[in-house]
Amino acid sequence: MEILLALMIGILTASGVWLIVRPRTYQVVIGLSLLSYAVNLFILASGRLRLDAPPVIGRGGVDVSLHTDPLPQALVLTAIVISFATTALLLVVLLASRGSTGTDHVDGQEPE
Amino acid sequence: MTGVLQHLIIAPILLPLVVAAAMLLFDEKRQRLKRVLSLGTSGALVLISAALLYLTAWPPSGAPDASHVYLLGNWPAPVGIVLVVDRLSAMMLVLASVLGFASLFYAAARWDRSGPRFHALFLFLLMGVNGAFLTGDIFNLFVFFEVLLASSYGLALHGGGASRTTASLHYIVINIVTSLLFLVGVSLVYAVTGTLNLADIAGVISRLPPDAGPILQGGFAVLGIAFLVKAGMWPLGFWLPNTYGVASPPAAAIFAILTKVGIYIILRFSSLLLPEYPAFAGGAELWLKSAGLATMAFGILSMLATRALSRVAGCYMIISSGTLLAAIGFNSPAATAGLLFYLVSSTLAAGAMYLIMEPVERNAAGGKTPSPSEPVFEDEYLGGPEDEERETEIGVAIPATVAVLGGGFILVAVLMAGLPPLSSFLAKFAIIDALLRDGRTDIFAWAIVTLMIVSGLAALVTMTRAGIDLLWTPSSLSTTRLSVIEAAPIGLLLATCVFLVIYGAQTMRYMEETARELDHPALYVDAVRNRIATEGRSQ
Asked: Which among B150, B165, B183 is the nearest to A86, CB-wise?
C-alpha cells in the first residue's frame, strides 16, 4: 500500500515537472494538474495510511484508535477546490494569451 | 480587549470580504457607487487597523497579554483556527491599509475603468493580505495566500494587452507551483507535529523524538522556499520586475505589500520556531544571510543595468527584500527594530514609485494615454478611459504639472536611495548601527553594510539618469494634465514617510518594542495557550 502510493506520487510528480518545463501552455496546465494530484495524495499520506477506518466519529462509543485522522482529508478537500479554481483561471489566461499573441508558446512568441 | 472590541480583530478580514462580495452584484457600469464603496471600505480599514495598533501597543486596563487572540467560531485552539494580533501584525495591517487606500484613490483617476471588477478584486486582495497577517494557523495561512494570489492574478491582468497577459501567465504558473510546495511543506510539518497551529507547533517541536528531525527540517525548508519565492529572493524572484513592471500602476503599487507578506511570514516563523529548534537555527540564519546578500547584489546589478523606469521599481523591491532577509538572518533585536522600520519605509517608497512612474512617463511621452483595451466581459464598462475624461474632468488640473511631478520624483528618489532627511535614511542607519555594534567581527555584517550603501548609490544613479531622461530632456511645453486625484495619493504616501521622520523617536520606540516581542516568542505562544486554558474553563 505504502509502496503503491509512493510510486503513484513519484510518477505523477515526475510527469508534472517534465510537463511544466515544456514550452506549450497547454502542456504546462496539464503538468500543473498532475502536480496538484500528486500533492493531494501526499497530503492524504501525511495523516498515515489506514484501511477501513472512518474519519468521522459517529454516535455511541468513541475509540479514537479505530478512526483515521480526519484533518488531512479536510485539507485535501480545500486543496482540491483551490487548485481546481486556479486551473480554471489559468485556462482562461491561456486562451487570452493565445488570442492576443497568436501563439501557444509560454513566452508569447515562437523561438527563432 | 473585551466585548465588541474583541471582534475588531476579525473586521479587517470580514469587512472587505462582505463589501467585495456585495459589489459583484451591482452592474459594472455603476462605477461611482463602486468607487465610493471601495474607498469607504479601505478608509474604514485604515481606521480599524489604526485602532488595533493603538489597542495592542497601549492596552486599556492592565491586560497582561502582549498578543490578542481571537477564536474563530469560538472553537478552542488548536482544534479551531485562531487569529492573533500583536505589535508586528498590527503594524503590517496599518501599512497594508494605508498603501491600499492610496492605490485605490489613485485608481479612481482613470485606471479602475480600464478593466472589469477592479474594485472587488482589490478588496479581495486586501482581505487576503490582512488575513495572512492575522492568522495563527499555517493551513489558514495557505488559504489566505490563495485568496490574495487569486485576486492578484486578476489585478495583474487588469487593463489587458499582450504583454500583461504573457507576464501574468508566468506569474500565475510560478505561484501555483509555489502554492503546491506550500502544501507539501504544511503536510510534512503536520505529519511530524500533528498540529497546524503555529503557537502549538512552537511548543511541540522541542519535544519531538530525534528521528523526526529530517522530515521536520524538510518541511520547513519546503515552506521556506514557498515564502522566499513570494519575497522575491534571488534566484527565485526573477519573475518580479517583469510582472510588476507591466501591471497597471495602482495594482503594482499594492503588489509592493505582497513581497512583504513573504518577509512577514519568514520573520514570524523565525521568531517563533528557531529558538525552539536550535539544531536548525544556525543553518537557517546562515542561509538567510547569504541569500539576502545574493539578492541585494543581484538587485543592485539589475537596477544599474535597466533603462525602463518600471523595472527600476522592481529592482528596488528586490534590493529591499534582500536587505530585509539578510537583516532577519542576524536575529538581534536591534537589527530587527531597524529592519521593521526599513520594511515600512521601503514599502511606502515602492508604492509611491509605482504610482508616480506612470504620470512621469506620460509627461515625457507628451501626454498620450495608452489606448483602452477591448472589453472582455459583456457587462464591462465599454467607454474607454479617454472618453470619460473628455466628458467629465475629474479633479482640477494643476498647471505646474512638471514642478509637482519633479518634486515628487526627487522625494521618491531620496527615499529609494536612503538619503536624509526621509525615513529610509533613519531605517538604514538603524540597521547599519545595529550590525556594526553586534557583529563587528562578522564578515557578513560588513558585507551587508557595504551592499546597503552601494544599493543607495545605485538607486541614486539610476533615478538621476531616469529623471534627466524623463523630466529635463522632454519638450518644455507639457500638455499633460495631472489630476489632483493622481497627485494626492502619492503625496499621502510621501507625507507618511515624512511623518515617520518627524515622529522618528516614537516610531523607533514602537519598532524596538516590536523587536523585543519577537525576541520573546513565549509571549505569543503563552497568549494563545492561555486563551485555550480560559476558554476550556468557561465551557
From this structure: B150
- Give this prediction's pTM: 0.89
Q: Which of B146, B172, B183 is closest, CB to CB, to A90?
A: B172
Count CB pairs under 8 A between chains A and B: 95
Query: Model confidence over B472-494: pLDDT tens digits?
Result: 776 555 556 667 788 888 888 88
Residue B125 near residue B97 (C-beta atoms within 8 A): no
Contact B324, B227 (CB under 8 A): no
CB B170 within 8 A of CB B177: no
**A77 contacts A43 by C-beta, under 8 angstroms:** no
Beta bridge partners of B68: B85
By C-alpha distance, which of B530, B531, B529, B523 is closest to B87?
B523
In this complex, is the C-beta atom of B238 within 8 Å of any C-beta atom belonging to chain A?
A: no
Nearest chain A residue to B145, by CA: A82
How many angstroms separate the CA atoms of A98 and B1, rounded? 54
Alpha helices in B115-161 (DSSP H): 118-134, 138-157
Q: Which of A76-80, A103-107, B291-295, B392-396 has the lowest mean pLDDT?
A: B392-396
Give the Cα separation of B539 and B536 in Å (integer). Answer: 6
* ipTM value: 0.92
